[in-house]
């Protein structure tokens, strides 16, 4: 069972996660990605979905046209764990390759 990060550890991890912030009032992290167009946004989601499935760790996300809003938290642990940090890093890498 993966454990929730302490507030301190979460803040430290966020320093390495460009564009991600804590969610107000919830033990979760979020980032809104804006792409060139829908095609690129959906391409991002497709690639991120494969990473999520492979790591058995899934995002809460919302896509409107070229924007993808992502919230990460580990439901089984009730808050942010290392799994969320890893998936956020992977998403940043995918977005950087597309941008
Ligand atoms: N994704 N974000 C998130 N949090 C979870 O707890 C989680 C998940 N994906 C799959 C998953 N848990 C399963 O391992 C459990 O539901 C069995």
Automatic annotation (TrEMBL):
PANTHER family: PTERIN-4-ALPHA-CARBINOLAMINE DEHYDRATASE
Assigned keywords, A-Z: Lyase
GO biological process: tetrahydrobiopterin biosynthetic process
Protein name, entry field: Putative pterin-4-alpha-carbinolamine dehydratase
Superkingdom field: Bacteria
A Pfam family recorded for this sequence: Pterin_4a
Signal peptide per UniProt: none
EC number annotated for this UniProt entry: 4.2.1.96
InterPro entries linked: PCD_sf, Pterin_deHydtase
Species of provenance: Bradyrhizobium erythrophlei
Family per record: Belongs to the pterin-4-alpha-carbinolamine dehydratase family.
Reaction catalysis annotation: (4aS,6R)-4a-hydroxy-L-erythro-5,6,7,8-tetrahydrobiopterin = (6R)-L-erythro-6,7-dihydrobiopterin + H2O
EC category name: lyase
GO MF terms, alphabetically ordered: 4-alpha-hydroxytetrahydrobiopterin dehydratase activity
Cross-referenced SUPFAM superfamilies: PCD-like (SSF55248)
């Amino acid at each position: 069972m993966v454990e929730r990060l302490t507030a301190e550890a979460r803040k430290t991890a966020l320093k390495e996660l460009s564009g991600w912030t804590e969610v107000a009032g919830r033990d979760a992290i979020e980032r809104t990605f804006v792409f060139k167009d829908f095609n690129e946004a959906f391409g991002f989601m497709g690639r991120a979905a494969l990473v999520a499935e492979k790591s058995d760790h899934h995002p809460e996300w919302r896509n409107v046209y070229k924007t993808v809003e992502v919230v990460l938290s580990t439901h089984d642990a009730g808050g942010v764990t290392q799994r969320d940090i890893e998936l956020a890093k992977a998403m940043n890498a995918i977005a950087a390759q597309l941008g």
